[in-house]
Amino acid sequence: MVTRASAGLIYFLETRLMPGMEHVSNVPLLVAVRSGLAVTMPLVLLGSLAVLLNSFPLPAYRVFMESVFGPDWRFFGGVIWSSTFAVMSLTMQFSVGTQIAQHYNDENPRNMVSPLIAGLVSFATLLSLIAMESGGLSPRWMGVSGLFVALIVAVTSVKLFLFLYSFPRLRLYLPGGTPDFALPDMFNSLVPAILTVTIFAGGGLIIHALSGTTIHEAFHTLLRRPFDIMGDGFSRGMFYIFSLQSLWFFGIHGANVLDPITHDIYGAAMAANEAAALAGQALPHIMTKPFMDVFVFMGGAGTSISLAFALLLFGETKNQRRLAGISLIPGLFNLNEILLFGLPVILNPVMLVPFVFIPLVLAFISYCAVAWGLVPGTSANVEWTTPVFLNAYLSTGSLSGAVLQLVNLTVGTCLYAPFVLISNRINSRRVDRAFTSLLSRVTTTETQRPNALERGDETGLLARALVPDLEHAFYKEKSIYLEFQPQIAATTGRVSGVEALLRWKHPYYGLIPAPITIALAEGTGLIKPMGLWIFEEACTVREQWLNAGMEDIVLAINVSALQLEENLVKEVVGIMQRHRIPSDILELEVTESTMLGAGTAQSQYLSQLHMLGLRIAIDDFGMGHSSLKYLKQFPVTTVKIDDGISREVVTNPICADIVASITRLCRARGMLCVAEFVENDAQAAVLRTLGVDALQGHIFSPSLAADECFAFIRENNARAAKQENRVRIA
To answer: PANTHER family per the record (predicted)?
Structure first.
């Protein structure tokens, strides 16, 4: 449980800091950078495993590896490291560049640029700056040491490229008829790309000519300068920790940047302690490199092992807990890149305070424990990859060192907990916004409904994250199911039909709106097997109702335009024959916004299904681009009025007039008219007056499980029959 102090901290953070944190977290540029860092996770994980493979601290492990694989057993791990961590700046440069361009496209759909070209421009820009060193490309700045400069260059170079791209005069027009459709994009980007790389290369050359150093060297020299003028002692140690943590937060490999400080000061302090221990003298230094590694940077920078435990205990999503669980194993060996780039911690405003200041708190606790004689100082050097607890025992020669580590781990976890909870709240709001945006996009009535899976913003990220969950739910968990909502005859009050509605209960997000589920299934091709399953499942239920004597209820089943192919006709016939269901009690609903063109194969297949005796309904009728066209393209038996019209018939006279026009048209053409989303008596009364044939909505019944719907139909129709008898007798 979170302590009372933590609860107070949560309240303070939520009321005072959370609004600002949330605002900063949602800045599009930061979102793009975080996304760019996160997508490199596979390489980060692979690189971490390579480091662990080559640096596992147990001598027995090294003897075993050498006996099995020979003296060059580290070669394979070195190759993996060289292809991941050794080029981390380059891979993240490209990744961040493409993400920034994708976000630009989402905000400027009429002036879109190729994200791949933007990423390559950013990549080339960084290479032009790294190549300023004598001898050509410097491997040092391609890896994690050059990450911060790479992030700055990624943002500024892509922003410059997009700025130049926004000028039409800088784009080279290529007329149609090109052999490759990618050529127009290339020609449009040619001049902005050349100018961007040239400007950055020229700027780097000027800096090199004036100062005799590269941008990377100048930046790192500037960072090291404060330590050169500070004296030795506790304050410098705390400043060292603060600086290292701050550098890591902004994507700079703090340990590499401060490497001279680490070895010249704290490495030398450790050597002095080892010499004193051998001579039987008192240890002269408390703060040494092993002191930092053992008591402060447990699990890596930011005391990441405490963050992992806080996520396991208080993380709201399965993904957070899974990420924490995965990070624990390398975290025991002080490898934390999975959390830094996967959560991510880097450039995450919510994690700024704990990531920087928790190590300072633990350093103070540990310093006091050693100074007061509660724990021995570090007298033996241990490799930084030595597992947690074992490294404390080996370094101090006492179990009290491991106990202090446990205390620090607990304190760190408790201090991280409030920020994890705040992160949960911010993520929850972000998810709500993304769901709202996603729902609005998949239910749009525009001629071309945008594919949410192609977006680069949080809406697109959410959509793509839901896809594997949907596939898993459909194929493995079987958490996709149907509910049935009754349709009430407007004049008699009897149930005249039911609509089969798709439901997906997500283990974290809860009930996913059906339009989102359908849109994701359509975008991934899952709609075809899922659509057949829906038809099969609905017919199974209808067969049970037939066997129970319920013969006159029409069952409406939604069909996507993507399902309308020759194979569907054969499958539908087979399912109806298998369940012995008359075709005239089945109705296929086609959403009006699915754009079935006249004379298309889909329209022909729909006509074939109608010729087999199935009823055809047009859903969401009246708000799209082709409502009336549908009535002449294929036979329609039922029209379902769009909810944007039916909801406002009481308050909006125009909507009432539209409904009246639709009902007159339906009577003239011999079609039924159904109004959905009927939510109150006044709305139902107006719709009846306007001539609607059937009503569907929560005022009558929500969607129900098959057994519950069957019972509702029986009870409702029996009640309606009694009412009819009373009227007849009267």
So the answer is: PTHR33989, PTS SYSTEM N,N'-DIACETYLCHITOBIOSE-SPECIFIC EIIC COMPONENT (PTHR33989:SF4)
Strands 495-506 and 510-512: antiparallel
Q: What DSSP assignment string belongs to 298-313?
A: TTSTTTHHHHHHHHHH
**pLDDT over 90, % of the chain:** 29
Q: Is residue 706 part of a domain?
A: yes
Among 41, 42, 67, 66, CA closest to 54: 66
Beta carbons of 248 and 346 less than 8 angstroms apart? yes
Query: Per the domain annotation, does 110 fall within a domain?
Result: no
Task: Please report, to the nearest 10 degrees, the dihedral formed by the alpha carbons of residues 7, 8, 14, 18 taken in order.
Answer: -110
Q: Which H or E element spans position 207?
A: helix 183-211
Looking at residue 705, which CATH number applies to its domain?
A: 3.20.20.450
Q: What residues does 638 pair with on adjacent strands?
A: 617, 672
Confirm whether 274 is domain-assigned. Answer: no
Query: 């020609």: which residue's tokens?
Result: 187
Strand pairing class (694-695; 480-489):
antiparallel
- The total of other beta-carbon atoms located within 10 Å of residue 231's CB is 6
| Residues paired with residue 420 on neighbouring β-strands, in sequence order | none
Separation of alpha carbons 18 and 74, rounded Å: 47
Domain carrying residue 492: 483-504+521-636+700-729
- For residues 416 and 314, give the distance between their C-alpha atoms in angstroms, rounded to a whole number: 10
CA of 697: how far to CAs of 486, 510, 676, 680, in Å?
Answer: 8, 22, 6, 9
Q: 571 near 532, Cβ under 8 Å?
A: yes
The whole-model pTM stands at 0.67
Q: What is the pLDDT of residue 447?
A: 45
Q: Can you tell me the distance from the alpha carbon of 126 to that of 201, in angstroms, rounded to the nearest whole number?
A: 9
Task: Tell me the longest C-alpha to C-alpha distance in the chain.
Answer: 114
Residue 598 clears pLDDT 60, i.e. is over it: no
Which helix or strand (DSSP H or E) is residue 236 part of? helix 234-249
Tell me how many degrees the CA angle 675-679-684 measures, rounded to the nearest 5.
55
How many domains in the chain? 1
The answer to whether residues 192 and 165 touch, using CB atoms and an 8 Å cutoff, is yes
Is residue 623 one of the residues assigned to a domain? yes
Q: Which two tokens stand for residue 709?
A: 């719907």
